[in-house]
Amino acid sequence: MDSKAAAVLDTLRRTQRFLDANDAALGQVNRSGARKTLDQVVTDLTTHGNVQESSKRKAMGETSKQRALRVAVLKQMRSVARIAASTLRNIPQFSSLTMPPSKASAREVTMRAHAMADAALPHASVFTDAGLSADFTDRLLAAAGAVEASLGDRNESGATRVTATQGTVSASRRGRHAVKVLDALVRLQLADDNDLLAGWVSAKRFHLIRTAPPASSAPAQAPGTSSAAA
Questions:
Q1: pTM for the complete prediction?
Q2: Which long-range contacts (CB under 8 A, 24 or more apart) does 72-76 make?
Q3: Spatial separation of the C-alpha atoms in residues 87 and 84, rounded to whole Å
Q4: Residue of 39, 116, 181, 216 with fewest CB within 10 Å of its CB?
């Protein structure tokens, strides 16, 4: 959850606590539609935030998983490529039996793996005579399929996170509107109680949550000056 949505959620929860703690004076407000909206928005924002975090973690996990799966595909491709380089250089499909570029993406590697399996199949005996298993093309395709499945899972996680992010934007907007309506109701109810009204004003104020600046951004101390407070 970004800092703006987190600030809204923090404020809405603080507002809830204030209204609950002062139900004796604000019972009518707590039974209003605006209060129901407030409670629903808190639930929605919390849910969206949890989905954002879980989908982010899942995408990170799939990225790490893809690296390992990509290595496994390349390992199988390398065996095929080395055998082809020593025995099949003169066939028209030889280029499909070579390794992909070292910086090829996971998607490119899977495409090259499929092309390699197709090119190797008519010459399967060459590869099995060189020591590969009889099902080496099936193994290669299965390894490529595992990468493709992981890519799909990561894309799905990304789409889920985008949806959750849009949900936080929408819920934050609804939450701010609910607080404005509640503000009007509370001010009317507490018109003669300045102390409680001051507490409300503090509770419903939105504070942007800021992250600490990096240490390198601190101004350099002038030569010859002391860092001790005067």
A1: 0.65
A2: 72/143, 72/146, 73/109, 73/110, 73/113, 73/140, 73/143, 73/144, 73/147, 74/99, 74/100, 74/109, 76/113, 76/136, 76/139, 76/140, 76/143
A3: 5
A4: 216
The domain locations on the chain are: 3-210
Q: pLDDT 10s digit of each residue in the chain, 230 long?
A: 778 888 999 999 999 999 999 999 999 999 999 999 999 999 999 999 999 888 888 888 888 888 899 999 999 999 999 999 999 999 999 999 999 998 899 899 999 999 999 999 999 999 999 999 999 999 999 999 999 998 888 888 888 888 998 999 999 999 999 999 999 999 999 999 999 999 999 999 886 655 455 454 444 444 444 333 32
Tokens of 80: 């095929």
Neighbour tally for 43: CB within 10 Å? 11
Tell me the CA end-to-end span of the chain in Å, nearest whole number.
41
What does the block give as tokens for 35? 């209060």
Instruction: Check if the beta carbon of residue 169 is closer than 8 Å to that of residue 116.
Output: no
